[in-house]
Specification:
This protein has 268 residues and is of the alpha/beta class. Helices cover 42% and strands 19% of the residues. The protein contains twelve helices and ten strands. A five-stranded mixed beta sheet has the order 2-1-3-10-4. Helix 3 (46-60) links the parallel strand 1 and strand 2 (65-69). The protein is globular and about 55 Å long. The relative contact order is 0.20.
Length: 268
């Protein structure tokens, strides 16, 4: 890459960072009311949360701007000053991370939904698999790669790695991974036929007609998959209203329709 192109790319990334992080310190509620309602949510929430947002807009005339990405990326952006007013993480550790930084209102923290992890394959190459201790995942992968979200930082990847370790097959496949920045990116690798199999959430599998679930990981092979939600320190009245809406019975059916388990709104 020549020096001119490097300078151009550097300016582009600098501008993107300024737009995302330019808000500086978390907004006060009064300041938040004068800004767009911005929600940061785990990538696997996209279909369900888009549906809830559309329904909320139809009922109230208001809507949220939702940014979807891997939970660690979102948590780090919140830490950097991004103006999110509501955060939905795909696991507890990344909500703990922003809580320990004093970036959320702890009294609002709750469990929103639950999920499962599954093994998927391209729709035209799907053969059912009995996922159990010692199953031969390496043979299923063959000469290809196992698509997963990053196993060190992204919740879906971490759950998958823990499950494979518990089932005693991790060592046989750890050299055959195609790690993606988030679970939707891992799903896309399988849907496009770039990976023969992948580990994703059940809800993601249901959202893509190009893949088929060939096996579901036993619940006892990994910690419970729950999605905590909380308002950030800068949340205003609109964020509080949207937060209440996604926890209400009006949104329950939308989440269940996408395959999430609504597990209540208790502390997480």
């Amino acid at each position: 890459m020549n020096h001119a192109r490097r300078r151009l790319l550097g300016r582009g990334f600098g501008l993107l960072a300024a737009l995302v992080l330019g808000a500086g310190a978390p907004q006060t509620p009064a300041q938040a009311q004068g800004r767009d309602l911005i929600v940061f949510a785990a990538a696997s929430m996209k279909n369900a949360l888009d549906a809830a947002n559309a329904k909320w807009k139809a009922e109230t005339g208001k809507s949220a701007k939702i940014s979807y990405a891997a939970s660690p990326a979102l948590a780090k952006q919140i830490e950097g000053g991004a103006p999110a007013q509501l955060f939905i993480s795909a696991d507890i550790p990344w909500m703990d991370y922003v809580a320990q930084k004093g970036l959320i209102k702890p009294e609002t923290r709750a469990t929103l939904v639950g999920n499962r992890i599954v093994l998927v394959a391209p729709k035209d190459k799907a053969t059912p698999v009995d996922i159990k201790a010692g199953f031969d995942l390496a043979q299923i992968i063959g000469g290809g790669r196992l698509a997963m979200a990053n196993v060190e930082s992204v919740p879906a990847g971490r759950y998958g790695k823990v499950a494979l370790e518990k089932l005693g097959v991790w060592d046989s496949v750890k050299g055959k991974l195609a790690q993606a920045e988030n679970v939707r990116a891992a799903l896309l690798l399988v849907s496009r036929g770039e990976a023969p199999v992948g580990i994703v959430y059940a809800t993601d599998a249901a959202s893509d007609k190009g893949v088929t679930v060939i096996g579901t990981f036993p619940e006892n092979s990994h910690p419970p998959i729950i999605y905590p939600v909380a308002l950030t320190k800068g949340a205003g009245a609109d964020a509080e209203a949207f937060f209440a809406y996604i926890k209400s019975g009006k949104s329950k059916q939308l989440f269940e329709a996408e395959g999430f388990a609504v597990v209540g709104a208790g502390p997480s």
